[in-house]
Specification:
With 245 residues, this protein is mainly α. Helices cover 71% and strands 3% of the residues. The N and C termini lie far apart (64 Å).
Length: 245
């Protein structure tokens, strides 16, 4: 009776098991490599989007600050002086600046891709994951404050100027240096003329509309503080993540 070649069977079995384990190891390595690449692309996209978001927020707040400063100056002027044609240029400039609106519209592509995938664990930093998850709600809260300011603009400021026969088409005056010039760089189809807007310095109804606009801009500024703090922190965490890759 022939003896079973146990040594050969053992060697062949070891080779087969080793091949299977090696195959699983290669597959796991490949999957890990693919996840690392996806994560790298995601982080790069988030870095670019949040850099643009900060620039967008800066631009929006420039407009909000312009309006809030103009309304504050008008309210102080109305309480300290009487309407006079000598104030025509100042009044036209301030009202012109009140007609600005700002709106924050950050990029959403990368963060939506991350959240829609439903796997925030792809990020190595848990704090970063929590902050990115909360970011859309923060933007929505800020946008709500901005929308309230726009509503005041449309419901109170513009209608009041029209009812007072102040020609909005001529309200394109902005302070440049010591004088008044045609405001931002665009080609307006007509040469603006100064208005009778200075007469509104004693108008209680207009003062109320300006006050409402000031408060709306104030609320935007209050909401912006926490939004900007988180934006800066997210950018810091993303940078740290990129450096650790």
């Amino acid at each position: 009776m022939k003896k079973a070649p146990w040594l050969r069977v053992f060697v062949e079995g070891t080779v087969i098991v080793g091949s299977i384990l090696l195959a699983f190891g290669i597959e796991a390595w490949w999957d890990g490599r693919g996840e690392a690449q996806r994560r790298s692309v995601l982080i790069s996209g988030l870095v670019a989007d949040f850099a643009e978001a900060e620039a967008e927020l800066d631009g929006a707040m420039d407009a909000h600050d312009l309006v809030q400063n103009a309304t504050a100056r008008w309210l102080r002027l109305a309480r300290s002086t009487s309407p006079s044609p000598d104030l025509t240029a100042v009044a036209d400039s301030l009202i012109s600046q009140m007609l600005f609106t700002g709106q924050f519209d950050p990029p959403r592509g990368s963060i939506e891709a991350l959240l829609n995938a439903g796997d925030i664990s792809v990020l190595a930093d848990a704090e970063l994951g929590e902050m990115l998850t909360a970011w859309p709600a923060q933007v929505a809260a800020f946008s709500e404050r901005e929308q309230n300011a726009i509503n005041v603009y449309h419901a109170w400021v513009i209608p009041y100027l029209m009812s007072a026969d102040v020609p909005i088409a001529d309200l394109t005056w902005y302070p440049h240096g010591l004088g008044l010039e045609l405001g931002p760089e665009f080609e307006f189809p007509v040469e603006p003329r100064h208005t009778q807007g200075y007469s509104l310095l004693s108008d209680v109804g207009w003062e109320s509309a300006v006050s409402m606009l000031w408060w709306a801009q104030h609320d935007v500024r209050e909401e912006e503080r926490s939004l900007r703090e988180d934006l800066i922190e997210i950018r810091r965490l993303l940078q740290a993540d990129g450096e650790n890759r």
